[in-house]
Amino acid sequence: MSVNNRVKHLRRPKKKATEKLRRQKTQRKRLVALGMEPAVVEKIPPHRVRALVRKPAAVKKQVAKKSAEG
Question: Distance from CA of residue 18 to its chain's centroid?
Answer without folding.
Answer: 14
